[in-house]
Amino acid sequence: MAITTRSGSKSPVKKSSSKTNAATDSPQQNPLKHFILPKDTPTQSRFILLRHPRDPDAQRFLFCPEKGLYHFTKVSPPSADPRSLLFTPLEPDRAESHVADHLDQSQAATEASLSCEEGYVSKTAEFFVATPFDLAFIILPLVTGRNLFQPIDDLLEEHMRENKHLRYLLEHGRRMVEEAMSRFCDTIQAGDEQMFRFSEDKVLRMLIQKADAAMARGLPSTLEEKFVTRALEAPILSVKREDTTISAIKTKSNATAPDDEEDDESASEVFESQSSAASIAPSAVFSEASTATSVSTVVPETISPELLELQKRRTVLDFLLESYVPNAIADRIRARLAAKGSPIDFAPLDGHLSSLAALRAEALLSRSISDFSRKRGLEDDETAELRAEKKRKQEEEDKRKRLGESNGVRALKKVDVSGMKKMSDFFARKPAARVV
């Protein structure tokens, strides 16, 4: 009897398909990165890698010889709310109107649909926005250890040997680098060459100018609400008063009723002392009325504009020091701001903040003493809010996972598996046989 076998051409494994290669080379396997660049960016602009002043690792920047340096800020949706992006050359209406100018109506719809099909769908809705970055913050960490006047090439020579992108920056943007260094360095002219020396006074002056410019444009509402308004708000104190009233109820005995004068005298004797009240207990009964509690709220005073301006200035300076200035220089700048000879006098603000801290401690203590029902009377309210927010996010995540489950998975979870063997028990390795 003839033996029949499967044809090799029908095997889905041996024959490679072009669709498999196309799927492997799909852009979703290696997703594209999307950058939003400034308008009218010239072709001479380049992506370069420079070391951020607050990060030892190199980060991507965009350098334009005409407009300056740009840093890329990543914008992405929260993980609990997944999104995707669709990129198309033109909008459908605009594409149809654009094509209709050159083609007849029958071909316009076809061309418009083709132009939309040439778009790209990004699985993760992430993109990078080019934001202006001051070149002075890039050069600042490179020249802090030099106390002598030196040319710009000598100051950056060692760093340019390690980073070729920094050399490109100096070669194509030398004028911008010199202008940035002149804002935080002392300069002298030695012949045809300009020499630089690091100056902390100029660094402080540069930061104050940036803070003033940020305050003139206005702080973001969320930033001002959290770090300015709430920081200067005085706690609401409640003063609790208790008043106890005593009422005397006159009862007549079966004996002969006294006249009005005797009643007045006995009533006056009742209120004189508790001993006299006890002696005539058969004729008078005392009842203590319910305690009347009155709570008066101390309204916090309005914040003066001077304190608001000082708090805004300190907030902006702290943000600049934390985000763009190296730690060693930032600590020295903070010490200079706290000294007596500081260009900005923060003494009124410090006094107000210390008084607010004392009021908050007093309010917290009074609340913990008066309210015995609180299990966590000494706990900070912000910690409780953070815990509640974390719990809410966890509940949303669990709800999202439950919605993503199929009906079959939900049904399997309800099955009683007690007493059943696990799948791993069927694939366990048999024990080795003993040799007798």
From TrEMBL:
The UniProt keyword set, sorted, is: Nucleus
Q: Where in the cell is it found?
A: Nucleus
* A GO term from the CC aspect: ribonuclease H2 complex
Q: Where is the composition biased (Basic and acidic residues)?
A: 386-404
In this chain, composition skew of type Acidic residues spans 258-267
Q: What is the annotated role of this protein in its UniProt record? A: Non catalytic subunit of RNase H2, an endonuclease that specifically degrades the RNA of RNA:DNA hybrids. Participates in DNA replication, possibly by mediating the removal of lagging-strand Okazaki fragment RNA primers during DNA replication. Mediates the excision of single ribonucleotides from DNA:RNA duplexes.
Record's protein name: Ribonuclease H2 subunit B
Note the superkingdom of the native organism: Eukaryota
Give the UniProt record's GO annotations in the biological process aspect.
RNA catabolic process
Query: What residue stretches are annotated with the Ribonuclease H2 subunit B wHTH domain?
Result: 137-333
Query: By its UniProt entry, which Gene3D superfamilies does this protein fall under?
Result: 1.10.20.120
Q: Which InterPro entries match?
A: RNase_H2_suB, RNase_H2_suB_wHTH, Rnh202_N
PANTHER family the record matches: RIBONUCLEASE H2 SUBUNIT B
Q: Nucleus: is it a keyword of this entry?
A: yes
Stretches for region Disordered: 1-37, 250-273, 386-405
Compositionally biased intervals (Polar residues): 20-31
Rnh202 triple barrel domain: residues covered? 36-134
